[in-house]
Amino acid sequence: DAKTTQPNSMESNEEEPVHLPCNHSTISGTDYIHWYRQLPSQGPEYVIHGLTSNVNNRMASLAIAEDRKSSTLILHRATLRDAAVYYCILRDPQHINTGTASKLTFGTGTRLQVTL
Amino acid sequence: EAQVTQNPRYLITVTGKKLTVTCSQNMNHEYMSWYRQDPGLGLRQIYYSMNVEATDKGDVPEGYKVSRKEKRNFPLILESPSPNQTSLYFCASSFTGEHYGYTFGSGTRLTVV
Question: How many A/B residue pairs have CB atoms within 8 Å?
Answer without folding.
Answer: 61
